[in-house]
Amino acid sequence: MFKRTSVVAIGTLGGTITMTSNQGAAGVSSTLGAEDLAQSIPGLANLNIKLTLKTLANLASGSIRFETLFNALRWAKQQVEDGADGVVLVQGTDTLEESAFLMHLYWPYPQPLVLTGAMRSPSEAGADGPANLLAAIETAASPAMQNYGALVVMGDEVHQARYVKKLHTTSVGAFASLIIGPVAYLQENQLIVYRLPSPNRFVFDIPDQFTAQTLLIETTLDESVALYQAIPDLGYQGLVIAGYGSGHVSEKVRDVLTPIVAKMPVIMASRTGAGSTTKAVYGYKGGEIDLQAMGIMMAGGLCPRKTRLLLNALLWSGATRLEIQQRVKQFGEG
Ligand code: ASP
């Protein structure tokens, strides 16, 4: 039977997958672009996939700016408008989960937007970049992976942007979606799909301006409240706290949150790494019942970093406090 050639666009932003040792300098840094990466994949020629290639940047992922991501997003959208079946964005793994979630919030198409990277550079034994990129291309080309929004493919696993996290500094198995697991798995060039996409995904319009800044801080044992006291005057428009357990802070921190809540939305997430914040378990000062009564929102199952990005997107869209509350609830429970 005749099978149509799929079209996949690959845009590269940098990261370990693109890094080589550079003119005798110590360590590796980003030098390779989309053409180089495409040439490094054994077996690609056997697939019925046509690639469009674009080097968008050569950055370490910690230096990616929102502007970089929105430019990449506009490029990716154009690829779909021009007929691509899916788009792959390649970047460093350090901020991959944040880029993927931000992209997810703005990706309106059924076609997959797949992010990938590598834990080992091309010069290391057992470099994982070519296999990850091949798996990402196959995922992007697959009709079975439509309607999930942004996905992260690492080590033959396909993860949803909402859940995936980098959980190890150097392991090639660094990425996982705790509790929920990957949404699909690639084996023998076939996707084995474990879970269908959620219906009614909310998508933001790309903002004209994204100047509003938010702060994420993690609460720690017997910390000073000096930073919390300074927050109202630091120019932030929103605060996310990675709180203890299911969303708590100490009494003394709780006591300095009132002026912050008066000035900006404050969302309580959990610093634990998995599970949801609670709503009605703890009644002590600084517990979630008390914090909600003060006007603090609970992040549900959304991790602190992604909660911060959601809050950014909401502020950039001009959402009111009530709209922020509703949307945080929707994403936190989703
Ligand atoms: N260690 C990083 C990576 O895995 C470097 C970066 O994030 O750019 O790509």
UniProtKB/TrEMBL annotation:
Gene Ontology biological process terms from the UniProt entry: asparagine metabolic process
Keyword set, alphabetical order: Hydrolase
Name this protein carries in UniProt: L-asparaginase
Pfam family, one: Asparaginase_C
Active site: 16 (o-isoaspartyl threonine intermediate)
Keyword Plastid: no
GO MF terms held by the record: asparaginase activity
Family: Belongs to the asparaginase 1 family.
InterPro entries: AsnASE_II (IPR004550), Asp/glu_Ase-like_sf (IPR036152), Asparaginase/glutaminase-like (IPR006034), Asparaginase_C (IPR040919), L-asparaginase_C (IPR027473), L-asparaginase_N (IPR027474), L-asparaginase_N_sf (IPR037152)
Matches recorded under SMART domains: Asparaginase
Amino-acid positions noted as binding substrate in the UniProt annotation, renumbered to this chain: 61, 93-94
Domain of life the protein comes from: Bacteria
Span of domain L-asparaginase N-terminal: 8-195
Entries under PROSITE patterns matching the protein: ASN_GLN_ASE_3
All residue ranges annotated as the Asparaginase/glutaminase C-terminal domain in the record: 220-326
